[in-house]
Amino acid sequence: MMASVESSAFCSANSDDMDDTPLQQKLIIVTLLVLVKMGKSKQVTLGKLHQSYSKVCSKYGVTAIDFDEFAHTCSLVESRGIVTLKKRVILVLPLYVYDLTSVK
């Protein structure tokens, strides 16, 4: 399956039975399959997927999309039923820096 997605993503064929999945979505699917196959987990963070996706795009000379558009495109892939996105709330605490040199 991965080879067929990859071949259809990188070759330009004028066949009528060609899948109508956009190129960016195909690249995301291929990148995800490679990460899952190479890794030990079937779950990949969106940041790691975007980083690997950017490397794939640069390797094949395709313009990569930014992270916000990438996240939206991943939700489109999810709407096709190919993947499931798990949303987690990450609490970011503010970083306070104290200047201890002024304490007497």
From TrEMBL:
The keyword DNA damage does not apply. InterPro entries: Cdc6_C (IPR015163), WH-like_DNA-bd_sf (IPR036388), WH_DNA-bd_sf (IPR036390). Residues 17-86 form the Cdc6 C-terminal domain. It comes from the Eukaryota. Keywords: DNA replication. Belongs to the CDC6/cdc18 family. This is Cdc6 C-terminal domain-containing protein.
